[in-house]
Predict the 3D structure of the following.
Amino acid sequence: MYKAEFFAQDMAFEAAYLLQEDTALLSEDHLTMDSFDVDLPTEKTPVRKGHFCRISRVNGGFVQDCIVADCALSKTTVSVSLRPLLALLDAEVYTAPVQDCAAWITQQITEFFVASDDAAQNRAIAVQNDVSAGTRPLRFDDDKINLLDPIATALTNYKIAVQARLDLSARQVVFTIREIRKQITLEADFANVLQKDITLGDSSAGANKYIMRRISTDSDSGAVTILGKAVYYLHPDGSVDTKDANRILPVVWELGVLENSETWDADALAQAQEALTPQQYDNEIRLDYKRDDMMIRPESLPIGTEATIYTGGKAYRSLLTGREWDGNIHRLIFGQVRVDLTKKLILRRRNKN
């Protein structure tokens, strides 16, 4: 049995309800941030859009924190749509050259949600960046973007995860930015896997070498001058750099051009990583375990865990990007592919940015 507790935006308690575990399918997808529905037993509920929700088990154990996306009333029930608490950051921000995605995401949360010059825009939010400084560039094609999109890119390209939780005692939402270093090996054909669904992209056909021309375009004549080039390689561990060693073969290349700028090196690396890195997790692998499985402990695996998954005598490399709670079953969702049409459309929009 689940307990769903609802809180107003100032964290004042509003209501609590019991949910049957065998009828409430809970989900958390860090690529699409889509919602799931729970039915509450009364139309007189004080729950409203924008409220917070904490779901736990009656016999103990935190499950997840959410935000109410919508409420639909009927004569006897209200259907409440919940999104992961991270969806609180579903808002537009301005883009800029980014050399360290963790620092940039921290800055955006602070600027738009904590320290805005409009006091009514600010929220009771604390943000903590636990990632050491480094070169983790992001590239943007437009001058604004939904903040959830670069957060998803940071996860899949660098295993930088933004984790959200309700701090009820302090009456605030806490965002913690961490680098996920956990790795795991899973045998999908073992008996403890109750169900497996595997969709594989064609990673073998993906590019593993990126050739970038550095150009300068004359603003008057439009003439293009080639200033040089840089070559980037994809390595077996998923990293991308200019080192011509320990490469993935045979060579499959892709070409790119980038206008000269003061941040050209960082921008070029970001563009190369965008072109090459996604091939590493070009799959959707869904594995069902009992939630108390002692071999895997599925509920303890953080989003961003890198996994080597064996099935049919082959090994597939993937990344934990989502999960579902389905009664006594805990479903782990790996990879950047989504078979569901709605989720496909969300990812297609993101990839256009």
